[in-house]
Amino acid sequence: MADKDRTHQPWISHAWLGDAYLRDTVDRYFSKRARRGRGRSRKGYTDALRELESWGWRCVTEVHELGREAGQRESEPRLVAAARKRDLAWSKVSQDNEEHARVNLWTSEAWKKLHAIAAEEGLVAAAFERENYGELSRVFQFSKLYMFNASSGLYSCPLAMTDGAARLCELLGREDMVYRRAFGNLVSRDPLRFWTSGQWMTEIQGGSDVASGVETVAKPLDEGGEVGAWANARLFGYKWFSSATDARMAFTLARDIGEDGEMVKGTRGLSLFYVEVRDEQGRVRTDGIRLRRLKDKLGTRQLPTAELELVGVPCRRIGKRGRGVAQISALMNITRLHNSITAASYIRRIACITLDYAKKRAVFGKLLVDQPLAIQTLAHFEVHAQASLAMTMEAVYLLGLSESGRAMEDEKAMLRILTPLCKLYTAKQVVWSASECLEFFGGQGYIESTGIPEIFRDSLVLPIWEGPTNVLCLDVLRAMLADSGRGATALLSRSTRALLSGKQGAPPGQDLHKSIATVTKMAHDAKRQVSSLVQAFGDKGKAREAERDEHLGQLKRLVFSLCKILVSSLLVEHSSRSLPSSHSSSSLGDAVASAYCKSAASSPESSVDLGHLDFSSARAIVAA
Ligand code: UCC
Ligand code: FAD
């Protein structure tokens, strides 16, 4: 195509050098570590910068090409005949090999190459190589994921579950059989050794309420032999959604049947199991797993999401009977943050391509970037991009502190509540942004080969995966009740401290100054609401059911206001910091903080729509 014919095509900038906010964020956490007193680590800030810069380039070139290829219709995973009929000519035809002959999973070359790159780049391993960056291992890893995910053709999804699985193994301890079989593979940088993991929780009766939904049962294994060396049970049931169907292993929930044949109902009847899905040659086990069909989905079509029938697959029960939900939540809390960084990554991509397009597309005699209404939309994208990254990185920083044993009790409590908050809020932000992005490109936004429909479709799943918004609101409540509101209080105190220092830096009388004061008041109100909730639901709470329902009916308002208070404070903190001169201008930081705080102050409790930004902030954001 001649150049003049593609003048409006948006270009993707270098994922590191073209993203000043990311660079400033990484800089902020490395500086924080220097102030806090650094633990022992082998690598320093300059090593991190070097790696992030070269990775940023690889993401928008090689990875991006592969991601686009994985998203093509002809690359979609499919079930194919595993063996030709003539390969079975000399075997008895049993139900087993007939089934096996019928189905195996095919994935594209692009998908496999993304697997190899993920291994080489340590996209999971980096979190566990704590000797490199100590408590900042997670900040470093998530910076890489942030640059990768929007280009990854959703290879980000199996990586999320693999990371959660590796963390779960780590918590089991080095002596545990499952740790010994799986951990080294999950964190390997060797593409041939690197395993991914699935997470099978959802069954046809329900994915949120797993205590009622899970009907899969585990029967004790009474045979020895090769399998018996590590397995101690067999699973029977039907898993309704399995996204990482090409994975080597999975963690799953099932209802334990004891030697006496007894089965407990509800959460206490669920245990956690480890399954090796494939054999040494990488083939789906024929002794107990049937790939029944692939889901025909609205989006995420790159992913081999299947329904699996378990007909006695060997597995190993992990930990205590009946503690499955509590145990698998260690995995879920990691995948929820992957969901958040994916949302943030898409929003950054949206901000990048819409701005570039707006600088090229002229309408009614002027470029879009000079049209006030378009400036409003572009500014929203930038604010959401910064807000979603700020929130996720704060959670990720706390995760790194906690995993490296350097978190204080308040920080651990804050991490617990921030995880569902972050997941639910960023997922809402990306859905709003993806829909506006599609419209921003007009008719081209609707054309498959632009890649924009793929961003739209793949974003829509983010509020569903790893728990829908309502379920996560209830998880926020669970976290508050478990620690008498300590995590929420820590989050609000951290926010008010940041807001106060921002207010001291902002000239009185200015809009930012006033908005900070309003958000600070919101924080005080929220503290009161948290304690009244804890009282109403706590052991000593005397609230009647109707009163509790009243609280539950209002829960989302409190949840969204917690998100907005924290994000306001993080953006204010960021803007009030003097940034390295090569990075973003501080006027951009001020404008974003000011626009976000004003929006939070005017609609503290509802959705993610920022409303109308004042035009001077919007213009400053887009011009920066
Ligand atoms: O969607 C899925 C994969 C998609 C693909 C991967 C995407 C990754 C991102 C990629 C980006 C590209 S997999 C399916 C995900 N499913 C869920 O997330 C389930 C959602 N439902 C919930 O979260 C529910 O709230 C349940 C299942 C946790 C509710 O169950 P129960 O039975 O009501 O649970 P209980 O009784 O409240 O909690 C049982 C125990 C308690 O501990 P104890 O017994 O010590 O008091 C809870 O405190 O589990 C503990 N617990 C937690 N602990 C529950 N949730 C948590 C938590 N989040 N953190 C810590
Ligand atoms: P439900 O739990 O029935 O929820 C329906 C609605 O009810 C939601 O809007 C929810 O917010 C609301 N709701 C639920 N409880 C309450 C409440 N108490 N109060 C108010 N509202 C409530 N699962 C896996 O285990 N592994 C996978 O690999 C996997 N991959 C997936 C891939 C794709 C593409 C998709 C779409 C799903 C996948 N899932 C997977 C399933 C996913 O995790 C579930 O769909 C999700 O957890 C929601 O469960 P559900 O579909 O049963 O909806």
Can you give me a brief rundown of this structure?
By secondary structure, this protein is α+β, with helices and mostly antiparallel strands. It has 3 domains: 9-70 and 107-195; 197-322, Butyryl-CoA Dehydrogenase, subunit A, domain 2, CATH 2.40.110.20; 323-624, Butyryl-CoA Dehydrogenase, subunit A, domain 3 (Up-down Bundle). It is built from 22 helices and 11 strands.
Topology of helices and strands:
Layout: H1 20-36, H2 45-70, E1 78-80, H3 95-102, E2 104-106, H4 109-120, H5 125-128, H6 130-133, H7 137-149, H8 156-172, H9 177-186, E3 197-200, H10 210-213, E4 217-220, H11 225-228, E5 233-242, E6 249-256, E7 270-276, E8 289-294, E9 306-318, H12 324-358, E10 362-363, E11 366-367, H13 372-403, H14 409-440, H15 452-460, H16 469-482, H17 486-505, H18 511-537, H19 545-553, H20 555-576, H21 586-602, H22 615-623
Parallel strand pairs: 3-6, 4-6
Antiparallel strand pairs: 1-2, 4-5, 5-9, 6-7, 7-9, 8-9, 10-11
Helix pairs in contact: 1-13, 2-4, 2-7, 7-12, 7-13, 8-9, 8-12, 12-13, 12-14, 13-14, 13-20, 13-21, 13-22, 14-15, 14-16, 14-17, 17-18, 17-20, 18-20, 18-21, 20-21, 21-22
Bound molecules: ligand UCC and flavin-adenine dinucleotide.
